[in-house]
Amino acid sequence: MNVPLKGRRATTAQGGDGLRVDNISVTYRNGHTALRNASFAIPRGTITALVGVNGSGKSTLFKSIMGFVPLASGSVSIFGEPAREALKKNLVAYVPQSEDVDWNFPVLVEDVVMMGRYGHMNFFRMTRAVDREAVDAALERVGMADFRKRQIGELSGGQKKRVFLARALAQEGQIILLDEPFTGVDVRTEEAIITLLQGLRDEGRVMLVSTHNLGSVPRFCDRAVLVNRTVLAAGLTAETFTKANLEKAFGGVLRQFILGGAELHDDADTRQVTVLTDDERPFVIYGDGNGNDEAAAKKGGRRK
Ligand SMILES: Nc1ncnc2c1ncn2[C@@H]1O[C@H](COP(=O)(O)OP(=O)(O)OP(=O)(O)O)[C@@H](O)[C@H]1O
User: Which GO-annotated molecular functions does the record name (predicted)?
Assistant: First the structure.
């Protein structure tokens, strides 16, 4: 039963013909409620960042969209129909966190990518030419074609991520959920993944990407969803990924440095630089010293 709670947020998702999460709550079997009344909507052709502290419910949100954990209340719809219908049609691809994968499982790179085709195959999982072509194209697109006969466990962290991205591509997922795709990858691989995601966005797909790299969010994400056991803010990056919302989402975890005056200038310039970070990639905000802030990398996002 969906009983209105005292102080419950009026967060019903608005619009969007892509992914829509409406007032979902998830309680694990040990009684822990990881998400309560979480709502947001994201349209097609967008990249959305999912940010929040450790344990704020990002993976739980992915798992609830995938139907891996039951909803205590609320609903998820995809392209206007219930998520379970979209899942049956293989419209949703999930790139899990590295820790969730057993890398000792003896399987070749090309077999991992072929798993993305399973939903398109018949009961006997007979591979057809179209499946092999999809695997070849996906491996090529992520630059891993030369590694196809390698054991997945032998690859570097960044290479493994690219293989799982290839699996999502081979699946032809229209909604792609990526759980921390940049953790443990070098800057070059991160750039390659971002370029790939931008290409997928331009094809009209929906990407939801959890990340602790706050600095790269305004550069490549059109939208952001900030969570802490519920959705605190969701919308266009320029309007949502603000210092005030980040402080709300990260609380004491976020480290903040404000540089100004003689620390930054050798004249009377009043401008300031605010650096917010919970991780290795800081988010930099330039201010004029009169409380007017401008995020360093905001120009990269698109209005969608
Ligand atoms: N299977 C489970 N059973 C019970 N509690 C769980 C389970 N999985 C997660 N939790 C709890 O739910 C909360 C949210 O976890 P979740 O993994 O969704 O967080 P997260 O935002 O993805 O964290 P991180 O940034 O560390 O990956 C945490 O308090 C976690 O301990």
Answer: ATP binding
pLDDT score at 7:
33
CB atoms near residue 191 (< 10 Å)? 13
Contacts of residue 264, defined as CB under 8 A and 6 or more positions apart, other chains included, come to 271, 272, 273
Concatenating the DSSP letter of every residue in 89-147 gives TT-EEEE--GGGS-TTS--BHHHHHHHTTGGGS-TT----HHHHHHHHHHHHHTT-GGG
Q: Tens of pLDDT along 60-100?
A: 999 999 999 999 999 999 999 999 999 999 899 999 887 66
Give how far Cα 49 sits from Cα of 143, 268, 292, Å: 24, 38, 24
Determine which residue's CA is closest to atom 24 belonging to ligand 1. 54
Residue nearest to atom 4 of ligand 1 (CA): 28
Joined together, the tokens standing for residue 201 give: 């966005």
Which one-letter DSSP state was computed for residue 296? T
Q: Which own/partner pairs from 256-263 qualify as long-range (CB within 8 Å, at least 24 positions apart)?
A: 260/289
**Chain segment 31-61, per-residue pLDDT in tens:** 999 999 999 999 999 999 999 988 999 999 9
Centre of ligand 1 to C-alpha 216, Å, is 24
- The partner residues of 259 in beta bridges, in order of sequence, read 273
